[in-house]
Write a structure and sequence with these properties.
The protein is α/β, with parallel strands linked by helices. The chain folds into 2 domains: about 190 residues, NAD(P)-binding Rossmann-like Domain (Rossmann fold), CATH 3.40.50; about 120 residues, no CATH class. It is built from 13 helices and 11 strands. The chain has a 7-stranded parallel β-sheet, with helices on both faces. α1 packs across α6, α3 packs parallel to α4 and α7 packs across α11. The longest helix has 21 residues. The radius of gyration is 20 Å and the shape is globular. The termini are far apart. The model has no long low-confidence stretch (mean pLDDT about 90).
């Protein structure tokens, strides 16, 4: 059933992987959507206005909020560490851009701002599910920029409702980026490598489940921080094995020694020949799971897919669109395959 529309909503980063899926759902629910993104939005709809713009441009955001009088802003725009070489650009986009969004929202009476934060605020196994009151300790620039964004937004909690949702890796059909490297190994029947036996558990979030949480968060009567993620998180070995079995390829899960592998990953990153940064090479062999009891209670939210099920959706899309994916340019980082770098050497021996 369509909603009664009293004001449009703004989606920053609405041309990206997750943002575009959010826009689809919002339009389906009857919302009028305005997208601001550095990339061209490829969607067309009578209730969609797409603007190629930069959230570092405070004057542009101010004019837009003054003209449109948004009721909600979904702040999804962010630059990823493996997607840009200019770290100053990343910091300005993720931090200064977030400040600009919040300032424009507060100045022009936006009711609610929903911010996509990240599990990259940590890079250590705590030995238990991570709670919202655990002090963040990011180790790389993307995680640090997200933590800084959260702190900036907390300063606006007395002027608008701000809900920050800390997300693990977002998975759905069309999710590529670093996952495309894994999918290529599976499709070609190669060894799929895990570290130290692959018995560690790392949580994902299904994009459609995250969208449901974002929409519910827009109506939350206050400001809050929530963790989100899947339930019953399987080990990497179990997840990869499940996808390989469904794919029906000759791929198989194989293990690399933990200490030597982590040293090699750290060295490759230092030399600039690997797409895996400090967060990835630390967490690839660790458990990391969010405690999601708070968001379940506050928003009456529940996840619907397991890690294995959502990764299968993403792999199936990769296999069906592989030729087109290889030629993609000028799209967001998660909509194209990440460069392998030194990982290609591992592929040759797999």
């Amino acid at each position: 059933m369509s909603k009664t529309i009293d004001a449009p909503v703004l989606i920053t980063g609405g041309a990206g992987f997750f943002g575009s899926l959010l826009v689809e759902r919002l339009i389906a629910e009857g919302e009028h959507c305005v997208v601001v993104d550095l990339q061209r939005c490829d969607k067309r709809h009578e209730r969609l206005t797409a603007i190629e713009g930069d959230i570092r441009d405070a004057a542009m955001l101010d004019r837009l909020c003054a003209e449109r009088r948004f009721k909600t802003i979904y702040h999804c725009a962010a630059m990823l560490a493996h997607a840009v070489e200019d770290k100053t650009f990343l910091w300005e986009s993720n931090v200064d851009g977030t400040r600009n969004v919040a300032e424009a929202a507060a100045r022009h009476g936006v009711r609610a701002l929903v911010f996509l934060s990240s599990n990259c605020l940590w890079a250590e196994n705590m030995g238990r599910p991570v709670r919202e009151d655990d002090e963040p300790a990011p180790v790389e620039i993307y995680g640090k920029s997200k933590w800084e964004g959260e702190k900036i937004l907390a300063g606006y909690a007395d002027r608008l409702n701000v809900v920050s949702i800390r997300c693990p890796t977002i998975i759905d059909e069309g999710r590529l980026g670093l996952l495309a490297i894994l999918f290529e190994f599976i499709a070609e029947g190669r060894k799929v490598w895990v570290v130290g036996g692959g018995r560690n558990r790392y949580q994902f979030i299904y994009a459609q489940d995250l969208i449901a949480a974002c929409i519910a968060a827009a109506d939350y009567p206050g400001s809050e921080v929530f963790n989100i993620g899947s339930d019953n998180v399987e080990t990497f070995r179990e997840v990869y094995g499940s996808v390989i079995a469904r794919a029906g390829t000759r791929a198989r899960v194989a293990s690399l020694p933990r200490r030597a592998t982590l040293f090699a990953m750290r060295l490759a990153h230092t030399l600039g020949v690997s797409p895996l940064g400090p967060y990835q090479y630390r967490m690839i062999a660790e458990d990391f799971v969010f405690d999601t009891s708070k968001i379940k209670a506050a928003l009456q939210w529940r996840p619907t897919l397991s890690n294995a099920d959502m990764l299968w959706l993403a792999y199936r899309y990769f296999e069906q669109h592989r030729a087109a994916i290889q030629s993609r340019r000028d799209v967001s980082a998660h909509k194209q395959a990440a460069r392998m770098g030194v990982i290609r050497l591992l592929k040759w021996v797999s």
